[in-house]
Design brief:
The complex is a heterotrimer of chains A (529), B (285) and C (317). Chain A is an alpha+beta fold. Chain A is 32% helix and 23% strand. Chain A has 16 helices and 21 strands. Chain A has helices at residues 2-30, 40-45, 66-72, 122-135, 138-143, 167-170, 237-245, 260-265, 293-301, 305-312, 342-351, 382-397, 408-416, 438-444, 457-467, 472-489, and strands at residues 48-53, 80-82, 88-90, 93-100, 103-108, 145-152, 155-160, 199-205, 210-215, 228-233, 251-253, 269-284, 317-319, 364-365, 368-369, 371-376, 400-405, 423-429, 492-505, 508-509, 527-528. Residues 1-43 of chain A have low confidence and may be disordered. Helices cover 76% and strands 0% of the residues of chain B. By secondary structure, chain B is mostly helical. Chain C has helices spanning 2-28, 34-43, 52-61, 68-80, 94-129, 134-146, 151-165, 178-207, 210-217, 222-247, 254-259, 265-274, 278-306, 308-313. Chain C is flat. Mean pLDDT of chain C is 83; it is low at 312-317. The chains are: A alpha+beta (529), B mainly alpha (285), C mainly alpha (317). Chains in contact: A-B, A-C, B-C. Chains A and C meet through helix 1, helix 5, helix 7, helix 13 and strand 18 of A and helix 2, helix 3, helix 5, helix 7 and helix 10 of C.
Chain lengths: 529, 285, 317
Amino acid sequence: MKKAKVKKSLSGIMGAVLLLGLLTACGSANAPEVSTEPNAQAMAAEKVLHIGELWAIDGIDPVNQGTLVKEKALVTEVLCEANEKFELIPGLATEWTHTDDNTWVFTIRQGVKFHDGTAMDAEAVAWSINNALAVNPTLVTSTNISSVSATGDYEVTIATSKPNAELPEYMHLSGFGIIAAGTYDNSGNFVLPIGTGPYKVDTFNNSTGVLTVIKNNDYYGTKPSIDKVVITGMTDPSTRALALESGEIDFTCDVPFNETDRLDALDKIRIEKYVTARTYCINLNCGDLFSDKKVRQAASLAMDRETIANDVLYGCGSVSKSMYTDNMAWDNTEIDGAAFDLEQAKKLMAEAGWSDSDGDGYLDKDGRVFEFTLITYTQRPGLPLIAEALQAQLKELGMKVNVTTMDSSAITEHIKSGKEWGMYLSGSATCMAPSCVYFLENKYYSSNISAYGYSNAEMDSMIDKCKTEFDTAERYEISKQIQALAMDELPVIYVCNYGVAYGFNEKVSNFKFNPTAHDYMWNVDIQIN
Amino acid sequence: MNNKLDGFRHFCRRNSLFVIGSISVILILFTMTVGPSLCTHDPNAVKYSEKCISPCAEYPFGTDFSGRCVLCRVIYGAHISIGVALVVVVVGAFIGVTVGIVAGYAGGAVDSILMRLVEIMLSFPGTIFALAVLGTLGNGTINQIIALTVVRWAHYARLARGETLTVMNSDYIQAAQAIGNSRLRIIVSYIFPNIIGQIIVIATLSIGPVILAGAALSYLGLGAQIPSPEWGLMINGGKEYIRQAPWITLAPGMAAVLTVFAFNLLGEGIGDMIDPRLKEKAEAD
Amino acid sequence: MLKFAVKRVVACFFVLIAVSFLSFIVLSLAPGDTAVTILTHTFIGFDDIIHDADVQTVSQLYNLDSPLILQYWAWLKGALLGNWGTSYVHNVPVWSLILSKIPYTLFLGLIAFFAAFIISVPMGLYAAAHRNGAFDHISRFVTIFFGSIPNFWLALVLIIVFCIKLNWLPVTGIGSPLNFILPGITLMVGMIPTTFRITRSSMSEVMGQDYIATAKSKGLTPPQIVSKHALVNVAPSVITMAGLEIGHILGGSVIVETIFVWPGIGKLLYDSIISKDYPMMQGCIVTISLGYIIAMFLVDVITASIDPRIRLGGSRN
């Protein structure tokens, strides 16, 4: 009796195990191919570059994941490229001009073919730009484009609803990478990005996040030197360092800052550090504790940027004098907002009426202690470390800083809802497009969310003027004036320029740094031995 | 005298887990209390000139990437890690026991509804639900306590209900009901004292796992915030320095292992002593 | 038997609906404007500048202004028809991405579980059969110690030793069997204490029963007692325990998958929490609970088929 039952139950277990096994097997069969390693023979002939990408590769949509597709995979290209001074140079458009305040005409490069063999003409470009605007509505907001049309075989006319002097600059946004209609299937579903770039997509594995691109033999420009590039998402910096050391990857961006010296000393690894168009900056709450300009200046003077750049960031970043770096064509080089002078800072705080009346080490005024919350987020590893350092440095001045980390969307709501905050430390991109006013508008224009309540009519009118000045030199000049005013008013303090540490396997050579890239952009003639 | 000593030896042998566990827990709580006054360094004082010093006389566990004494931080961190766990267990057990007794005593629809709720809570894996709650509430120690409590109470509730049902069937409860005691009085004077032993075992046993769960949340960046010396957060901060300064990661990790080990031994030990069924068997051996 | 199974399926279904409702509510209460979240993760960089006009566009695009209960109703209707919504971050159907991740988690989890099972069940049986012996004490100490190690710290220590110092094993990747070793060990160490403890305590209980005493008095040798009487009676609790552990596999490896960059559902869930990808979080939570509920159901059916009293009683509790 008992035995029979056990048998029955055993068969039940067996059934369950089998079922599970089957489920697993089916699952594995459905899952895309795991290994993309080429066989040994092919490896000898083929030059392959393995890249450790610092973000998870969620998708390869050429509009919304434009930075990956254009800069890191070199699959798409844009109408206007930029040189190392952030000045525009011809890309897929050979020239451009504005015929009136609301109309821009672009002349398209001839003889370029998409990866699927179709010709890139004005029709294709107009379709591609319209597609980008439909997929990502924020592109409409930032450019004011009202219509895009082909007005000749190789001429595209773009009309704007409001004058936009920097439309060509915005055409440099990677979301505007030019793609062929074949990127989508007949029912409008996205398949794979088909661009004009030196590399074309070979495979993309959605579940492992591995993107493989191969060389485009029909490329119109400099012929690519590497046959195949495998890009793997590795979100943890230590993991990227380990993978670089073990030879799993040949190139990566952002290894742990503290590891750079040790890695660089290894025979087979080389580290190169650069400064990118991103800044570690602090928005101050000008509606509360930081309403007095003297207090804002004191906070800036109390920051020892040199120590932060060297001891916290280990040289992956540099002291920032203003929002922009010297190499940008519109940078106002006369500004130096990096002074460190604790005595002067203390004097300014005293002038503003703050003193330590109860001897607890913290300043107070009318019974209120100078205590505030410094908000930051953790996705950029330097931020929490800088926050810790600032906490210690501002304590010297007598400010009590409480650090808290939040998701960036929660930060916006926290500040908007009127909860207590004093500083918001972020790593903001200064040149999403190579524009001399984009960043200024966003951080200082009174109606913008990212201005966090700062409002100055003079500033607003200067920014409006800059955005509609069609003469480039004149526009840069206005930008310099805005920079000077912004650094005098100081609603935003700049701590350090954002640095990146690139790690190379020794067999990689001829890498050329592109300062306009957002994390990294490798060059077509990079070599691997 | 000899007899007493023999008895003590016998007790220790039979209850080795309890003896070792309670001694270790007492040692840990003692260090936690006395430690801060012996620390000569401020656990949060940043000093870049002394960063990543390997263990030496001045800094027995070395210093971290901001030049802070790792030993001091581990000791201060104990307050947070153990404190959070104790609060979670006490509050969670209180809520759970209340719900469990009410469900078991009332029976019927109340029981069904409460127990369905418990079942739903238990079908979420603990970490996942805590993560979701923290994702909602935002980071911070208080929110971490709330998230862990929300996850834990259902475990105590299920146990308390089961034990209540067992006790309810016994003769003396029926006798107490027969002589007209009020419901509250029956719950407080008869049911509660009879199930508290089991609850204490489970509560003690869950201190260790709750410390681990709390550290895990902080490790993922969802619990304590910088510059707090919470252990999980220290391990997370030190992991980038694993090559040049492994002590930043190893010290808080070892502290967590030893503390949780001590509480787990104590819990299992109490379990061996209190569980009457097992005790009978132990005596029968 | 069939009636019992149908009853359990209906009950499971309602638990699942309740789980999805609860998690939907919890997620909806989260701070942070959902429109801003979608905006920063899908359309612009996550720490880029936000325009009010764009926030409004996204709100309309994703139907975020309708009341919560209607949003949940819309989700539930879709979910029952197999449409779990679209991920904010990945911009692909939630279900398809989850489905592609499940095999990775399940495979790793089952390997770890079977390893833990093979090690700890015999240990538990032996320890209980020789209660208070040296083996019993040592194995209890060791397993309690295993249960005291934070898994994220164990993972780091294993990486230090095997990847950095010895350079024997790769840290990440999924291509080779070597990739399974470290995450597998980390998961296994976490599973051993529970499997051991439950095996030991249920075996102890069985060893204290009258029929074991009777068998002893009949003069059977200990191995005979264990194989003929004890094992049969320990089986139901061990099956229940195994079911519980397998049910927890989907949700049990968030941290391990995050550290070893394992492309499973745990890492997917963690990433979606970090990026506030609510449809994805909801999908992952429901999937994980579904896994647990299915495992519980199978356990119920199996134990009920062994022990008819459970069937008549109707409920596990």
